[in-house]
Specification:
alpha/beta, binds ligand V47
Length: 366
């Protein structure tokens, strides 16, 4: 199958779910990777996109309790925190001083935070940082806001947009399967609600991202179904709406620190499975322009390899990352210089981008 696939794809053939299953079963990881790499090169040439950005988590208090999440804590937990909108805006201003062009703001589903709190975050960041790209709030947060304000997700999105929201991040999709959600995150807004929020955002002209959490309890068939649901929604959005998915972000499951530190040195999800999943994502999602290797979760070494398996984006400098940890401290960011060197080592061209993937003239830092 792999020997013919490259030709078929170049003639516009679209993979079927059965094709994707055979690719997951194929032992030839390098042939698969080469096809995904060619596909990415045809779309983006040598370019690898990055942003100067900061991830801000305004609260870790969450009432949802997903079994895979080691970031959140219950409303009663003393380790819980909430940043005020002014504190979020201050972090955003600091990021701008450090040349950031994009901010990624997400948090837990905190029952004590009122609707106005979220509007104030966007409003205050926008007032303090007029030209900063604001990517904020996952689909479950938008559903929570709709419930808090007795509005539809579309009305909430329109209000956030009017305050200065630019795009939505892709979190909260996990594996888009009712059965998976019932097992691992029964209190979370459903897969259909996740799709509804992204559909509504696209209808309002708000571009969004999509994630897939893989390597945690799901079957290969569920991964495939997830990818095809995204491809179907994107087909609709591209024909009917102004907005669409800009980027797909495959997120490998990271176990809690205590598990990482135990006697078993083998990772819970193997590197080849991660690369295979990334390559197949590139091939199935033929209508989503960018595939992101999110280095805080993939790790830097595998991120570099992922650039040869279909990825063309590595998120950015990040500054700090709290959702998963590789020590007791948050993951700290990379400098622009480090990102450049890292991308060049993979024989790719670093391209600083804005939040809509427009290239920004690079800083003179080589
Ligand atoms: O929705 C939670 C996942 C997501 C774990 O849109 C975990 O550009 C691995 O969505 N191991 C949040 N993953 C992160 C996210 C994201 C990250 C980077 C860029 C973008 C983007 C989006 O992280 C959650 C969940 O699916 N997650 N726990 C874990 N232990």
């Amino acid at each position: 199958m792999l020997s013919q696939l490259q030709n078929q794809l170049s003639q516009g053939y679209r993979l079927t779910p059965a094709d994707a299953l055979s690719l997951f079963q194929s032992p030839d990881i390098f042939a698969l990777g080469a096809i995904a790499e060619k596909t990415a090169l045809a779309l983006h040439h040598q370019n690898v996109y990055y942003s100067v950005n900061r991830h801000i988590n305004y609260t870790n208090i969450c009432s949802i309790g997903c079994t895979f999440c080691h970031f959140s804590c219950s409303p009663q937990d003393p380790a819980g925190y909430v940043l005020t909108p002014a504190q979020v805006a201050q972090l955003a201003s600091q990021a701008v001083q450090a040349q950031a062009t994009e901010i990624h703001i997400v948090g837990g589903i905190n029952p004590d935070l009122p609707y106005d709190y979220y509007l104030s975050i966007i409003k205050e960041v926008r007032q303090n940082c007029p030209s900063l790209h604001i990517k904020a709030f996952t689909a479950p947060e938008i559903i929570d806001l709709a419930q808090k304000s007795s509005q539809s997700p579309s009305q909430v999105l329109a209000q956030l947009q009017s305050q200065g929201l630019n795009t939505l991040p892709g979190g909260g999709a996990e594996i888009l399967s009712d059965k998976y959600f019932a097992q691992n995150c029964p209190k979370k807004p459903t897969p259909e609600q996740w799709l509804e929020v992204h559909r509504a955002a696209h209808a309002l002209g708000i571009p969004t991202n999509a994630t897939m959490l893989f390597g945690y309890q799901e079957t290969i068939q569920q991964r495939i179904d997830h990818l095809f649901q995204l491809r179907d929604l994107q087909d609709q959005s591209l024909t009917q709406h102004q907005g669409s998915f800009q980027c797909f972000v495959p997120l490998p499951y990271i176990p809690p620190r205590s598990t990482t530190a135990n006697a078993d040195p083998t990772p819970s999800i193997d590197a080849l499975d991660q690369l295979r999943t990334i390559a197949i994502s590139r091939l199935v999602l033929d209508n989503i322009p960018h595939i992101k290797a999110f280095w805080p979760m993939l790790g830097l070494k595998l991120t570099q390899v992922a650039l040869c398996f279909g990825c063309d984006d590595i998120d950015g400098t990040v500054t700090e990352y709290r959702v998963v940890k590789n020590s007791d401290q948050p993951i700290t960011g990379l400098t622009i210089h480090q990102l450049h060197r890292f991308i060049c080592q993979a024989r790719r061209q670093p391209v600083l981008r804005d939040g809509f993937y427009n290239p920004i003239p690079p800083y003179n830092n080589d």
